């Protein structure tokens, strides 16, 4: 017997009219409203049976579609859990590096590939591109063959302990690993990051710079080609690898106030267009001279006529540091080619070359850095902000 408020006999068809609610279908003990084609609820008790049946058919189709979605989601989840137990750390890292090679700057890819190679194989990054890897060179056992589901934060701790000399680069190494797993989670390969929440630690800020006396000694004890590299990097603030070593005549633009080096988004470390402005007459003369000498290919080259690389610049700097140390000129701990860029920052902020001090906002534009990075690294050198503090003290 039909209850009051229901249309007699409609319950057997899977739908019926409920007073105050309109036409509904049953799902177990629940009632699901039927809808018109435009998505509004079907409330008219006297609606044509054809319209009610059409609404019920739409409900059944929607229910079927949702069931299929649930089934597919369950299959994906089951597949992800299977991969969680079978996919290895090395395979995950390779998937991430395939993406990084395409979307990141070459220098960024190299840094991350080196870190992940070390983590997975236990060999130093210098062997990443080598065919032979002598067992004696192995630093640790490597974690690449571990299934993802077995990787735990303790393994990261063990990796870091195997490299006690890592200091300034520890954070970058850990973040490379976190990025690899986060990429695979976002790509649907993994259901979760096995080391999510691992703290990479704070940045170890390296603010080593050269004094004018140290700079002079470095020039005097270097071959002309390397002295030129030091001079240009210090005066332009160019990144040694992806800017100084990569610049060609095609990157150079004449400007009424000097020269510009223009790098596209694809060439820039930050994936944003980068402009290096040069007003120093000596550097302008060097650049123009190199453009005449090398109209194609990188402008700056070593004694063999080969384009500079990050590795070659680093090796020459290490040799130079050792040579001048014997002369009693000791550079600060952590001094490297990148210190040329820090030297540019300090001198620019303090008006060393122009006699005009500048603020952090201007410096970040000159260096191609974010305001946050420049503020964290160079604010202490900016008299524009510290002088008012002394005046008010």
Which structural traits does this protein have?
single chain; 393 residues; hpI Integrase, Chain A; three-stranded antiparallel β-sheet; 6 strands; 48% helix; 7% strand; elongated
CATH architecture of the largest domain: Orthogonal Bundle
**Main sheet: strands, sense, barrel:** 3 strands, antiparallel
Our estimate of the beta-strand percent is 5-15%
Percent of residues in helices: 40-55%
> Average pLDDT across residues?
89
Strand segment tally:
6
Shape: elongated
The number of domains is 3
The CATH class name of the largest domain reads Mainly Alpha
Give the C-alpha Rg. Answer: 32 Å
Q: Would you identify the CATH H-level superfamily of the largest domain?
A: Intergrase catalytic core
Structural class: mainly alpha
* Secondary-structure element order, N to C: EEEHHHHHHHHEEEHHHHHH
Read across the widest sheet, the strand sequence of neighbours is 1-2-3
* Distinct helical segment count: 14
Say what the CATH topology of the largest domain is.
hpI Integrase, Chain A
* Low-pLDDT residue spans: none
């Amino acid at each position: 017997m039909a209850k009051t408020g229901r249309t007699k006999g409609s319950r057997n068809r899977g739908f019926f009219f409920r007073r105050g609610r309109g036409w509904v279908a049953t799902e177990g003990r629940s009632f699901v409203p039927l809808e018109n084609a435009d998505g509004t609820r079907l409330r008219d008790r006297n609606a044509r049976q054809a319209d009610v049946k059409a609404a019920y058919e739409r409900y059944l189709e929607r229910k079927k579609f949702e069931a299929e979605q649930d089934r597919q989601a369950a299959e994906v989840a089951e597949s992800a859990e299977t991969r969680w137990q079978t996919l290895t750390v090395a395979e995950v890292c390779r998937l991430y590096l395939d993406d990084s090679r395409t979307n990141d700057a070459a220098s960024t890819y190299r840094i991350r590939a080196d870190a992940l190679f070390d983590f997975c194989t236990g060999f130093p990054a210098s062997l990443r591109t080598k065919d032979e890897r002598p067992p004696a060179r192995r630093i640790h056992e490597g974690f690449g063959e571990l299934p993802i589901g077995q990787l735990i934060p303790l393994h990261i701790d063990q990796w870091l302990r195997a490299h006690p000399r890592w200091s300034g680069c520890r954070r970058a190494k850990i973040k490379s690993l976190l990025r690899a797993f986060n990429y695979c989670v976002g790509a649907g390969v993994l259901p979760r990051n096995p080391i999510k929440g691992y703290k990479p630690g704070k940045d170890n800020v390296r603010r080593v710079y050269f004094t004018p006396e140290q700079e002079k000694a470095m020039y005097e004890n270097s071959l002309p080609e390397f002295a030129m590299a030091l001079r240009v990097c210090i005066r332009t603030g160019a990144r040694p690898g992806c800017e100084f070593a990569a610049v060609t005549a095609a990157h150079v633009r004449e400007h009424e106030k000097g020269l510009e080096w223009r790098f596209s988004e694809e060439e820039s470390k930050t994936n944003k267009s980068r402009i290096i402005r040069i007003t120093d007459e000596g550097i302008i003369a060097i650049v123009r001279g190199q453009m005449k000498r090398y109209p194609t290919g990188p402008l700056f080259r070593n004694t063999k006529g080969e384009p500079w690389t990050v590795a070659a610049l680093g090796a020459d700097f290490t040799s130079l540091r050792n040579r001048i140390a014997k002369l009693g000129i000791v550079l600060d701990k952590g001094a490297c080619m990148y210190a040329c860029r820090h030297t540019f920052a300090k001198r620019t902020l303090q008006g060393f070359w122009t006699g005009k001090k500048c603020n952090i906002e201007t410096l970040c534009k000159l260096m191609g850095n974010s305001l946050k990075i420049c503020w964290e690294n160079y604010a202490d050198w900016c008299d524009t902000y510290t002088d008012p503090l002394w005046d008010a003290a």
